[in-house]
Amino acid sequence: MFKNILTVVFVFLAYIVGAQNIEFKAANFKDDKDGLKTANEAIKSGDEFLELGNEAFFAVRGPGHNYELALINYEIAQKFNPDNALLNFKIGVCHANSPYSNKSITYLNKAHNLDPECDEFMLYYYGVALQLEGKFTEAITAYNGFNEAYKKADDFSKFVAKRKKECAAAQAGIASPIRAWVDNIKELNTEYNDFGPAVTTDGSEIIYTSDRPNGHAKSESGTYDKDIYSSTVSLGKWSAPQPLKGGVNTEADEISNNLSYDGTKMLLHRYNDGNMDIFESKLKGAAWGSPEILPHAISSPRTNDVYGAYSADGWSIYFGRDNASRSNGFEIMYSSMQSKITKNYMAATMISSVNSKFNEGPIYVAIDGETMYIASQGKGSYGGYDIFVSRGSKGSWSEPVNMGYPINTPYDDFFFSATANGKYAYIASNREGGSGGYDIYKVTFFGPPKTPAMETEDYLLASIVNPIKDNAIETTVEVKKKSFTVFKGKTIDAMTKAPVESEIEITDNATGNLIETFTTNSATGKFIITLASGKNYGIAVKAEGYLFHSENFDIPAGSGDNLVNKVIELKNIAVGSKIALRNIFFDTGKSTLRSTSNRELDRLVKLLKDVPILKIEISGHTDNTGSARLNESLSQDRAQAVVNYLKLMGIDTGRLTAEGYGSSLPIATNGTSTGRQENRRTEFEIKSN
Questions:
Q1: What separation in angstroms does the CA of 297 have from each of 293, 300, 313, 513?
Q2: 10: which residues sit within 8 A by CB, 6+ positions away?
Q3: Which pLDDT does position 339 carry in this prediction?
Q4: Among 36, 246, 393, 582, who pairs with 551 as Cys (CB 3.0-4.6 Å)?
Q5: Mean pLDDT score of the chain
Q6: Spatial CA neighbour of 253 closest among 193, 332, 185
Q7: What whole-number distance in Å separates Cα of residue 199 and Cα of residue 208?
């Protein structure tokens, strides 16, 4: 019995000793005066950097590398004496204001246990630790205690009020989670910082920033510079990330912002003559070109400009600007071109409705042009940066609304980039459970089941960590108002299958208006464009030395979440080459050309004028509906109508012949409506060159 009592007393005394606050005094380290001297010198050096970091933080400015440099010194002292309350507090502060904020919890809790009065800001940062742990009620108590105890609390009232509002907002958000999954993409992440995701509209490729080891020298703070990487997905698995090919990455920090909707341009920011500026790089073949700085209206020599985002119509750039004369940190601005030819940008304008008294972060404008996703430290954040959504109408933007839990947490959650169908988005977060600092996460939105209006190619909705367990109906997150179809593919030589760099025109067949002109990738022949539903589109593909290719397809109104993936085979200008003119339209049962055929016919006129030695046959074809005699007559008349148009446009009669083949040369089955539509066509064949 006595032995057991002694054991209990010994354990209790050991706990008391273990919980003691050990000061950095000679009396405590009589046998290692040199070690004590080194530790105190390291603390003194660390304090200089900590003060600079704190000054910047509470002025709503970026702290630079000051917290990292302070940590390097504090960790020297921590190895010598890990049981000092004030040192643990300082280390906790450095981590709390870094991408590795989860590390602050252990140090701040230990500091509070050792001596809750070790620093005037102990209760404030103890509240931060509790907030990160999800102990929101206790955190609010700590923040109130700081207000009561700290004699200069009024100087920091906006920060304390902000923290308390965050705790209340987080409690409400976690109690009513939105209908979405958030999954860590393990293949993309490391123990370092991986952030700035920008995904192509079809979701097949992602670029992002990482400060992982890259072969460059470390900075004075012991970190690697930031480079931009890319990865592609196949069967749900992301490939090993590779540094971007081309002239983007240097030994400076390159931070990815946004991809253009067709994936051929990219905005990024990096330091330039003492400030951060926004640059644009263009994809040519397999390599990204050296970034070019954006005009002064966007990349001003007097301010820090970051987080560039393309507008849906291509006229404007949205971005964040830090004006040293203000105390609100980065604010969201935009600048619009006066002309797409001269590309002169007007002076930037602040969007007051979306800005707060704290830093606004990365921006993403959805392809509908009416939805903006913004990261902000204010506006009702749960803590750190949260992602908010704002709706645009008639040139103005609504008050941003928090996207909710589990997208947002008490940690930093920012950099939103979505696929065209709006079901998937990618964000960066340093929430607990990640691989290191910031990690890339995939957000999957889901709502009531719906039947697509046309055949789609889509991903299976599945979560790595949260499979569906029941059919309960939850709140649906609306991430877009309009529906879109991604039209992607590649242009290749019909014979060799080699990629062909081509020019593609997209036309609204109802109006005849040209919607978009773009060039396919010279190295791969790939292209991607996103089209609104509710239209019939004409596609024309042209490449030097090849016959042009055309077709049309209809996207019914309301048919969202679709993917059209097409390989377009181009034929050389050789005798015997044939091509279907898919965007020539006739009145039903007649040979009267509709005006919507003019753009297609004019492309054929241009080909014949560009290659004046070509002689062609225009042929008409029908399906097998009706009598053979009537079909032959109709097809002949339609072929002749095309020839007549070409003659009217100045093409010599001797170069043109018209033949009607009726239903005698089908290219598809006549047993289905789709096959019959394929068989009803107008073609031309090169007879002489």
A1: 11, 6, 19, 32
A2: none
A3: 81
A4: 582
A5: 90
A6: 193
A7: 9
Residue 591 CA to chain centroid, in angstroms?
49
CA-based max dimension of the chain: 121
Tokens 């001003």 label which residue? 300
**DSSP 3-state assignment of 44?**
helix
Q: What's the pLDDT tens digit per position in 420-436?
A: 988 999 999 999 999 99
Contact (CB, 8 A) for 413 and 427: yes
pLDDT on residue 560:
57
Q: What one-letter code names the amino acid at 77?
A: A
Q: Do domains 19-175 and 186-212+222-231+239-445 have the same CATH topology?
A: no
Q: Any idea where the domains of the chain sit in the sequence?
A: 19-175, 186-212+222-231+239-445, 483-572, 574-689
Each residue of 543-595: pLDDT tens digit? Answer: 998 988 998 888 877 655 578 889 999 988 889 989 899 999 999 899 999 99
Q: For residue 138, what are its two tokens?
A: 């206790």
Instruction: Tell me the three state secondary structure of residue 83.
Output: coil
Residues 6+ apart with CB under 8 A from 9: none
Quote the CA–CA distance of 53 and 65 in Å, as a whole number: 8
Phi and psi of 59, rounded to 5°?
Answer: -100, 10
* DSSP state string for 553-602: EEE-TT--SEEEEEEEEE-BS-TT-EEE-TT--B-TTS-PBPGGGHHHHH
pLDDT at 18 exceeding the cut of 70:
no
Sequence-distant (≥ 6) Cβ neighbours of residue 330 within 8 angstroms: 304, 306, 307, 320, 321, 322, 359, 360, 361
As given in the structure block, the two tokens for residue 102 are: 């989860």
Place of tokens 């009607």: 660
Could you write out the DSSP letters of every residue in 229-277? EEEEEETTEEPPPEEPSBS---SS--EEEEE-TTSSEEEEEEEETTEEE
Sign of the alpha-carbon torsion through 373, 375, 376, 382: positive
C-beta of residue 68 within 8 angstroms of C-beta of residue 221: yes
Phi first, then psi, for residue 593 (nearest 5°) are -70, 135
Nearest C-alpha neighbor of 280 from the set 303, 248, 249, 246: 248
Name the residue among 62, 107, 66 with its Cα closest to residue 89.
107
Tell me the DSSP string of 177-212: --SEEEEE-GGG--SS-EEEEEE-TTSSEEEEEE-S
Q: At what angle do helices 122-132 and 104-114 cross, to 10 degrees?
A: 140
Contact 593, 540 (CB under 8 A): no
Q: Which fold has domain 186-212+222-231+239-445?
A: Neuraminidase (2.120.10)
Tokens of 74: 């504090």
CATH code for residues 574-689: 3.30.1330.60
Angle at 316 between CA 312 and CA 320, to 5 degrees: 105
Q: Which one-letter amino acid corresponds to residue 337?
A: M
By the 8 A CB rule, do 311 and 369 touch?
yes
pLDDT tens for each residue of 73-105: 999 999 999 999 999 999 999 999 999 999 999
Q: Return the CATH fold of 19-175.
A: 1.25.40
Structure token pair of residue 130: 């509790």
* pLDDT computed for residue 62 by the predictor: 87
Domain with residues 483-572, CATH architecture: Sandwich (2.60)
Distance (Å, rounded) from C-alpha 24 to C-alpha 74?
13
Structure tokens at 137: 């009620």
CB 296 within 8 A of CB 228: no
The residue with greater pLDDT, 282 or 327, is 282
Closest CA to 125 of 97, 165, 155: 97
Closest CA to 390 of 377, 406, 375, 405: 375
Q: How far apart are CA 122 and CA 109, in angstroms?
A: 10
Q: Which amino acid is present at 247? A: G
CA distance 46 to 26: 20
